Every structure is written in C-alpha cells, then in structure tokens.
TrEMBL record:
Residues 290-383 form the Histidine kinase/HSP90-like ATPase domain. Keywords: Kinase, Membrane, Transferase, Transmembrane, Transmembrane helix, Two-component regulatory system. InterPro entries: DUF5931, HATPase_C_sf, HATPase_dom, Sensor_HK_TwoCompSys. It comes from the Bacteria. This is DUF5931 domain-containing protein. Pfam families: DUF5931, HATPase_c. Residues 7-182 form the DUF5931 domain. The lineage of its organism: Bacteria, Bacillati, Actinomycetota, Actinomycetes, Streptosporangiales.
Amino acid sequence: MTGRRAVDLEVALWRAVAVYRALALAYAATLIAMNSGGYARPLGGWAVLAVMAAWTAWATFAFADPRRRGWPLLAADLAVAMGCLLATVWVESPEGIAAGRPTLPVSWVAAAVLSWAVRGGKRLGLTAAVALGVGDLLIHVLAGTAGGLGDRTFNGIVLLLMAGLVVGHVVKLARDAEARLARAVEMEAATRERERLARRIHDSVLQVLAMVKRRGGELGGEAAELGRLAGEQEAALRALIGVSPPAAETGHRGEQTDLRPLLTAHSAASVTVSTPATPVPLAAHAAHEIEAAVAAALDNVRRHGGDGVRAWVLVEDGDDEVTVSVRDDGPGIPEGRLERAAADGRLGVAQSIRGRVRDLGGTVAIVTAPGEGTEIEMTVPRAPDRRPRP
C-alpha cells in the first residue's frame, strides 16, 4: 500500500508537468500566430512551433514511463527548450527583440525546468532555470541588442528561477510527507498487532503463569520455587507486551456467524446466558472477538469474585448494533483498581475487553460499586468500523 501511494504521487507530478507543457504550447502557438507577420522569417516561426509540438507529444509519452526519466531524457528536454529559445534570434527581427517582443516558445521552456525540479528537487530545478536564463540573455547578445535589455527579459528569468526553486521545494515536501505517512501507517499497524498479541497472550500464557505462581506458593517446597520462576516470567512477559503494540486480526470477515452458540457455550451452573430466540448474525471476526471479550470478563468474575458468585450474560440484538452485557453479583471493583492494573501491566480489561471492542468500532461501559457487583456492557456496530474509537 505504501509503494502504491508513492507511485501515485509520482504519476500525479509528471501528469501535472505534461498538462503544463500542453497548455504552454497552446499559448506559444497563439502568440506565434499573432506575431508571425512581423517576423524576419515567418516560416521559421511555424517550423519552431512544429518542433515544440512534436517534442511535447514525445516528452509526454516518455516521461510517463519511470524507466525513461533519467539523465538522457532530462538533458534532451533542456536542449530542445534551449534550441527553441535561441531560434528566436533567427526568426525574430532585431527590432522586435530590442522592442521586448516575447521569445518564440514563451513560457513553454519552463516545462523543462519543472521536469528537472520534479526529478531532482530544487537544486536541479534551479540548474535548469539558470541555463535557460543564460539562453534568454544570449538572445540579446547574438541579436546585438544587449544594451536594450528590458524588464521583461529579467522578469522572465526571475520567474524561471522561482519555478525551479518553488516547485522543487514543494516536490521535496510532498515526498517527505509521503514517507512520514508511510512510516505512521506502519507504526500504527505494528502497534495494533502488538495489542492483539497482548490480548492473546493474556488469555492464555499469562493466566497459566499466574496460576502456576499461585499454586506453587500454596503448595510450598519445590513447587514454591517453580511458582517464583513462573512469577518472574509472568512479570517479564507483562512488561514486554506492555510496550508492544498491533493491526486488527485478519480473517474471513465476509462470513456471517451466529453469536448465540458462541456465548451459550459459556453457560454453567454459575453462569446464565440469555440470547434472542432468533439468530444474531455478525461478521465471523467480530463474533469471535466478542466471544473472547466475554470469556475474559467471565474469567475475571471467577478469579476475583470468590466462591458462589454468579454471572449473567445478556445479548440484545438491535437494528444497527449488538449489545452484550456481563453482570455478576460479586464484591465489585474497588475504585482505581483498573487503573492500577493497567499501570502494572495486567491488561485483562484494558486489552482483552476494551481493546477488542474498540477494534470493532464499539464501546465498553463498566458499572460497579463495592458490594453491588459489576456490569460490563459491550456495544458493537453490526458492520464493524475498523477505525478505533478514542
């Protein structure tokens, strides 16, 4: 995707140069038609216009191919522009040159400056502009009218220099912005991928290590040493995934899955699952992510609620969104506990629940009070929005 954006930028830049070249050719043709009656060699003016038209067609075709945008084509472009510029001495009368009448190609020569600027930035753009500026001055020297240099000549040279400088600088800024955008996209993808892996690890490895640590401490002896080692590894792994982030998991998102059987599989003596009588279809990826978030919530109930705590899972199927709530009658979550857990690297709620729902474009609301239990309400759109919500 990054490479495609860079290609699109290059195509747009060279296409703009081609459009300018064609418009400038039309302007030069208009002026030649208007002034040909005063030329010393009127047919010469039309011959130069024919050369300009032929080169415009060829340059438009040649610069469209990235393989041809090298020094030979750039040098030829500048040489043709210089030749058409100096042909003014042969076609125009000395009186016309002294009077400040426009050169034959007029602003068409600036297309070469733009080509050099697009190819190599402001340095090459200024180089081409200086060369054509010297050509402007050389016209008066060859025509013997150097003493009659007017403001029009110097204005033309200044405009060429500005075109080379400004266009070259803007092209550099555009390419730098493209590179920064590509890096930002890559960093976002890496961040989201690490978050996804953190959720997976929390749901499996970290819980096993925590259990080994807890059981080892209860059993004592050699088991206590194993529990201590497991605790160290758990802490190290939590620290690692705490700075590691991630892109949304791919999968068969085009498929539809009924959410009900995924959640009813969690029914138990202490867990009641209530679902609608009709199917609750969701994208397969979204359905499995919701099921994993519900599993994480029920695991928190089992680990922190104590013996005899019951939980209820309720599914509400709306037209545009699906709401799943997990409620328990446990002791509730003490104030500040979730913040402290996230700071310590325990990412159960932060990643396994909030992170999953956020990646689906949904929201999570947690209502709890000491001694009153906890309710976690997860709402996701029926067509998941892949943009994370703040």
